[in-house]
Structure formats: C-alpha cells, structure tokens
Amino acid sequence: MSLNPFSRSSAFNGKHALRVNTIVVWLVATFLLLIVIGTGLLMLPAMSTLPSGLSFLDALFMATSASCVTGLSVIDTATDLTTQGQLVILGLFQIGGLSILVFAAFFTFLLNSKLRIHHAKILPDYLDGETLGSARALLKRIVLFTVLIETGTFVALLYTWGSYPFSSWSERIFFSLFHAASAFCNAGFSLFSQGFYEPVIRDMYVLHAVVSVTIVLGSLGFATLNNIFSPQQLRQRLEKPWIDWHLSTKVAVNTTLLLLVVGTISFYWLEKSNTLSGMNLTESLIGSFFQSATARTAGFNTVDISQITIPTTVLLMFLMFIGGSSGSTAGGIKTSTFFLLIASVISTSRGSSQITIGNRHISNGVVFKALSIFFYGIVINLIGVFILSISEPQLPLIDITFEQVSAFGTVGLSRGITASLSEVGKAVIIATMFLGRVGTLTFAIALSARAIPQNYKLPEEELMVG
To answer: 196 with 301: CB under 8 angstroms?
Structure first.
C-alpha cells in the first residue's frame, strides 16, 4: 500500500492531463493541416486570376485567414480569385468555423467514455455540456443549427439583394450562399471588392439587418442557441415555467445585448457627422448596429473603416478584443471572460473575496482562468504591435494596432493596410490569426486540465498590491 495519501489522485490526474494534452495536440494539428491543404489549393493556377498565381506567403495568409474565420485579405477575393478559389475559401471558413466544436465533442466521446462524469469539465468553454450525454446531443444540434440558420439566411439574402446587377440567377444564388455562411461563421469574407460598402449594396438596409442578426446568432454559441431554441428546452420551460436558462446562457445573452447596445449608441454618436452623414435616423441606427455586431468578429463593413475617427477606432478595437461568446464561431477573449473580469472588479471593490452570480458561487479557479486568458490576449497583442511597429515603420501606429487586434479577435476589419504589409508583417498577422483562433481555445483547455483539487491549505501570506 502506498504511503503517499495523494498518489492515487496524482496518478488519476496524470492520466487526465495526458488525455487533455492529446486533445490539445490534435486540435492544433487539425487546424495546421487545414491551413496547409488550403495553402496548397490556393496556389494552384486554376484558383487565381492573377497571371503568376498566388505566392506561397499570400496563399498561406488567405488560407489561415479563412481557416481561422478572420476575413483579413491581402488580395481582392472578388476579382483575384476564380469561382474555384472562392469555393476553397468558402470551404475553409465553413470547416474552420465549426471544426473545433465538432472536434472537441468527438474527443469527448472517444477519450472520456470510461472517465468519471466530472471529467466532462474539459469542454465547458466549448460545449457547456453538463454531462457526456448532453455533449453528445449537442454535437448533433451543432450541425442542425448550422444548416437551419445558414439556410434561413441564404433564402433571406436571395430576395434582399434588390436591384444589384447580378449576371445570372446562379451568381445570385452563389453570392447568397457564400455570404450566409460567411456571416454565420463570423468569417467576414465577401465577394464584393469593398465588402458591404460596395455601391448599391451599402444602401440595402434590410440586407444589412439580415446579416447582422445572423452574425449575432453565430457569435452566441451553440450551447446558448441549444438552451434557448431547442424543442426539448422550449417544451420543458412551457411545462415547468420556473426552469430558467443556464447561467452561461444568461451571461452570453446579457453581455452580448449590453455590448450591442453600447456599441450601437457609441458608434452613432461618434460617427453621425462623419461616415454616417447623409443618412436618416433609421439608416444611421441600422449602420451603427451593423458595425457594433460585425466588430465582435464578423468583419463586414457598411462604412469606410479607413475614414472612421480615432475614438471610433478605439471603440471597435475594444469590441474586437472581447469578441463573441464561448462555444461560438467567434473569436476574442469571449464575453464570459469579460463578464467575469467585470464581476471580479465589482466584487473586489465591495470588499468581497467571492463572486456570486444568480445565486451561484463562481469558483476562484474559473476567475483565475479568465484572468489568464485576458493576460494571454494582452501579451499576444503587445508583442504583435511591437514587431509590426518595427517591420512597418511607414504605417500609422493606430492602423497597425487596429490590424493586430482585428487579427487576434479573428474579426477581419482593416483600415486598408493589409495588402501593403511587408513579408514580416504578413507573417506576424498570420501567427496572430492562428493564435487568436486556436491558441486561446487550447490555452483555456490546458488551464482546465491543470485544475487539480488540493486536500490541504498552505499558510497565508500578505503581499502588497497597488
């Protein structure tokens, strides 16, 4: 018999950490493989209209941007790619937008089938499953919600293009399909050279509203959509009205609404005499709402981003850094992280050492994880801006900072400098897009895996802070 009272727990946690490390490795490897395949395909002569085709670096940039559902582009997707090349981009952001969730659920079934139920906590940031069984059901609904929402958006777009001069109905269908998937996956890729700021398109406010709603649905997360809209959940709440949404759903919905409202009002106030000038109140509010929604990782634009004021640029960077909700196609540090940071500040200012939300105590481990993810995001962006300031001395600091934060949040908005970046600059943005999409997720999983329970408490010591 072992004399170490923690030996069994250590061995158990060691096996657990090994399995989680396997998941992390495969997550990263899957995205790398997707990017490599995408790069190879985009370098084929048939994929581009450019005489010499895409260079390796440009193809790598586009493949990474699409796989990481970012939308930043060093070429004009509308004119520099053939229909085959555009289909490759569509396939990359559709797979990249959903693969992490599906992949995580798959490994839950494969590796955790014989583990204790509490090991399902590996995936709370992705699937919010309370049990392995709920994760299994949610996996099926991931596909169902994707098909339903993208199909609904496709049909709506099909009949809201108005008088835009498509060459044929087949082109109209392809554009509708492409933008429906791009909106739900929060990819931000467009088949218009100027995005939704394209002449004629910029004035289609019903279309803007449709795309905005789709973006928001994509950024809420599948667990949230499942908790709100699944027939089983709806039926259960009708039969038992006292049953409320999950806490994570409340956080996702309320924080999203708060950011949308603040973003809309702020954008309107800052830009009403600038990029929104010439619009009536309704048009200005739709435009402001669109930019507030798209800044949280979709990357479309209905105004000229290069012409917005500096305060508005800072506002959009703030929204891009936060991003969407956990378990969604969006990027950023996530709304739950932002919410926990604010709750932690409020709790500390009140002299409390505990965070309570909706009659539920939030463990310190979860708060520490939120702080770690926030710190991770800050460091990645500071390093990126530092290197870009050296490699792109001719570009304004506000522009390269905006580009860097956009890449980290997998947003895709730009002040028009992406194509002019040097090779070093492109490499920095490629690395940032990858770390913003994959790094934050794997970092969160790794932190969850290292949450080892302790049956003892060390002596406390005071440390000066502030």
So the answer is: yes
Distance CA 203, CA 62 (A): 29
Token digits for 445?
Answer: 């999983």
Annotate 83-109 with DSSP letters as a single string. HHHHHHHHHHHHHHHHHHHHHHHHHHH
Residue 410: exposed, middle, or buried by beta-carbon count in 10 A (0-12, 13-18, 19+)?
Answer: buried
199 in helix, strand or coil? coil
User: How many Cβ atoms from other residues are within 10 Å of residue 22's Cβ?
Assistant: 13
Q: Distance (Å, rounded) from C-alpha 86 to C-alpha 80? A: 9
By residue count, the chain amounts to 466
Model pLDDT, residue 102: 65
Contacts of residue 100, defined as CB under 8 A and 6 or more positions apart, other chains included, come to 27, 31, 126, 438, 441
Q: Which residue has the tokens 């390269």?
A: 400
The torsion region of residue 354 among left (phi > 0), alpha (psi -120 to 50) and beta comes to: beta
* Residue 191: C-alpha distances to residues 75, 79, 83, 107, 120 (Å): 12, 8, 10, 35, 41
Measure the N-to-C terminal CA separation of the chain; round to a whole number of Å.
49
pTM of the prediction? 0.86
Strand, coil or helix: 257: helix
The 10 Å Cβ neighbour count of residue 464 is 4
Phi, psi dihedrals of residue 398, rounded to the nearest 5°:
-65, -35
**Could you report the per-residue pLDDT of 75-105, keeping only the tens digit for each?**
999 999 999 999 999 999 999 888 766 655 5
